[in-house]
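WARN no homologs supplied; continuing
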Amino acid sequence: MYKPLRALLFAAVLCLGYSAQAQNISNTPYSRYGLGEYNHNTGNIRNAGMANTGISAANAYQINTTNPALLYYNSLTSFEIGIAGEQKKLENANRSNKGGTANLSSISLSVPIARFWTTALSLRPYSDVSYSVSSQTSLTPEDVVTTSYRGEGGLSELYFGHGVRITKGLTIGGSVSYLFGTIIKESVTSIKNDSLDTSLDIEEVAYSEKTKYNDLLFRAGANYRAKLKDKLFLSAGAVYTLSTDMSAERDAGFMRRTKFGTVITDGMFADSSDSKVLLPSSFSAGISIDNGSNLTFAADFYTQKWSDFRNFNDEAELVDSYRINAGAEYTPDANSVGNYFERITYRAGLYFGNAPYEINDEQIKDKGITVGATFPFGRSTIYDMYQLNTAFGYGVRGTTDNGLVQENYFQFKVGVTINSRWFIKRRLE
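OK structure emitted
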């Protein structure tokens, strides 16, 4: 009964090196600032289908790392692996373009240690950097200066969490994560004269920064679940993430090259330096109502004091952000035999908030809707349960006003969850 789980674990190990640096987003101009675009889904695909709610919404058959205190409810050994993709349209007042990508998104494993204690390990993106923008200015009627900005990379998070039951209804949890990754940023300047032969090699000057980040991140969470009346339960939870000073190593320098990329001179004014990057604290709180069986409503609030963020060389680039999520899930009849569609879990959600980017005196807003579903497959027994999870979302970030860029994005996530009862005391009659 362990063969499918072992096969997936083996595949996950093979993908581990790739997924540690695999990024989820396509061209996102706003990822130019700070450490890139932050991954709001710190849970799983179930949470993504409910607009990333999950601070107080536990689930016994899927790993919820959004709040480590909820890990206690995973009484079976669970393994999850998923992929994520995005199709995006960028537009400003003058033009637009489209792009997309898909990658392995996350790998998670939870194991119950005792009746009151479950632990989990997860690898997922923490932030993503992927942008390519340019601007032009005129020096003379013939000479035009083009400056291009490009960036790629991001940070990954190796998460290790624990959830413990203290008393009836009250659980607490904590996690430590290792953040690591590399971000490469480049600015390229070239001058074009329309009166010259364009077939000639035009030189450009590029300034490149390659910064490696790593450090530990700590979270603490709590959740309380109470019975209001028959088939009606109320849960309230909160998570606090401590600030941290990440270690950063940067290699920077200039180079001269042709417009075709041939390097003429490399390593000009090269410099290597170390610094600290202040990652600010954050706070999340959530409330949920469920009937203890097949229906859950949840809402979360998240805020982070990004104005305290300090990048390399004490650069202040961001502003405070917040996000409000609301979602629900419903399973018509999990034990239905004659109707498969009644055994499917259906989800939907809404979110709205301010991103930590302020450009031209306007803070960027982000809003969207999500839907999702969990499809049981295979033969479920008291030992094993197999699920196919999906989540889809459409959102809008930014605006075309005031010289800004608006992102219209469609996201999807697909993954598999396997629940297996590993530790069974055998008895011979």
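Confidence is low (pLDDT under 50) at residues 10-14, 16-25.
OK
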